[in-house]
Amino acid sequence: MVTREVPRTRTRSPEIEVEIQEPKLTWRQLKAAEDEAAKKERAERERVAREDEKRIAAEVDYLSDQWIAFGKSEHDTPPELLPLEAANEFPSFCGFVSRSALRTISEEAFSRFKTQRDNLQAASKRAVDQVTSALKWGWKSIATLGFIANRYSEVEVSIIPPKLSDEASKTTADAAKFLRTNWSTLLDRDSQGIVSVHQHGGVTYIHFGSGRHGSMYIKLPTWANSSTAIETFLKKIAKPLRHFFSNKSLIAVVDGEFQNINFKSILTGDIVVRSYDKNTKKLSDNISKILTREPISPSNTQVISAIPNSEDEQSAVFKSSEHWNLWEGIADQWVGSAIRLDYPIVRSSSKESILQALSASKNVVIIVAHADAQVIYLPAPPPEGSTVSEDDFYNIRDKILSNAPMVYLFCCESAQTGDFRSLTEALLDCGAMGVAAPQAKINPERYRPLFERLLRKGSSDGPLGKLFDAEQVVGTRDMEVWLG
After folding, report:
1. Where are the domains of the chain?
2. 149-153, 243-247, 376-380: which range is least confident on average?
3. What is the pTM of this model?
4. Highest taxon of the source (predicted)?
């Protein structure tokens, strides 16, 4: 049997392609996945933001430290710059930081630091704006010295120091730094103020400084270049200045031109003190001391009268006995006021009695019939009387310096300024803590109520406060207080 081989055919198994399909997610599952991804992304953003915030905060702290370093380097601080002074310094500060920083500081850090500074300065800038606005509307109504004073455009208010002579610029800068210091532990710095008048290139500038805000400068029109015009202008802006100065501030008139202007008669709501010297050191020392001094009282005061009691004494003082009727009884009124209030008084004074009082009494009140800027004329000893001048003060300078009296000169023109040394200036140079004295002539009848009010028991604010309170009641303000 023949077998037949059947040919084999190779069959190829078809490849089976299996498509693996991901399981379909529900809507809830998809939403959960998206939320998780968003959560991770948000967490990352927050982490980066925290790191950025931490870095920016560190940079702002660094800028605060650099601000202190900038003040020391450029402005000899402390004390720290006042708000209006600081407002001018940010561009210079940025340059200082760019030169000294170890790395670049972000714009955001600068922006935040500037915002901090701006917030501190906002109230001070508003005070200047209020003065400017009040000045604008008030100025339109003034008619002064024959001018129709609708000239506000000629008056400029700025917080940037004007360009003055080198000496005046230094004086202004020193006064601004003086304002930054605390004059006394008994005085809030916000209650400190300064004022001075400067001229340069025929233009008058008035520097006002507030311990709360800093300094502002008012440029006057070119025609306002006399004492009369400046004084008129100052009286007009006295009310707007209340936006700038705290109530009942202690305001120091520091150097400058037009020293003959009586700022006390202008700033009637403030205690005003004066200085002959542009160096504020003595002024600062005497302010600190006088604020701790006890007010005037019978136990610490010597009153000395040089008002003539008779025709012979008038002849000794005035070298004439004519018109005795003009003086008859005046001495009795003044002396009687002192006696009623239990004050010790020398009735017919001589040079020796004044020099003795300056050497021993903490307060010396001299009531005088006749004086000028450099000499006091006294009725004793008879018949010629005597005089006291600066030479006599310098002869006992050591004693005056040791005693450091507060002196009240009810004497005509005894604080007058000029190309000479006044009685007041000589007393300060010899060591008197302070001198209250007028630049003008004073009327005996008008000033006796002030004398009597000064001697009465009252204010416990020390010599400055007691004199201020007496003047507020009586209304006379020619007894300027000189402390430097």
Report:
1. 48-118, 124-275+282-287, 293-482
2. 149-153
3. 0.83
4. Bacteria
Topology (CATH) of 293-482:
Rossmann fold (3.40.50)
d(CA 205, CA 256): 10
Backbone phi and psi for residue 126, each to the nearest 5 degrees, phi listed first: -65, -40
- In the numeric block, which tokens belong to residue 458? 């009252």
Place of tokens 């024959």: 146
Structure tokens belonging to residue 46: 């927050």
With the CA atoms of 389, 394, 395 and 401 taken in that order, what torsion angle do they form, in degrees rounded to the nearest 10? 130
Structure-block tokens of residue 397: 């300078």
Place of tokens 């210079």: 92
Please state at what angle helix 227-237 crosses helix 107-139, rounded to 10 degrees.
Answer: 110
Stated as kind and residue range, the H or E segment containing 94 is: helix 90-100
Give the model confidence (pLDDT) of 296-355 as tens digits.
999 999 999 999 999 999 998 888 888 898 889 999 999 999 999 999 999 988 999 999
Cα separation, 251 vs 157, in Å, equals 20
d(CA 110, CA 56): 9
Reported as type and span, the H/E element at residue 128 is helix 107-139
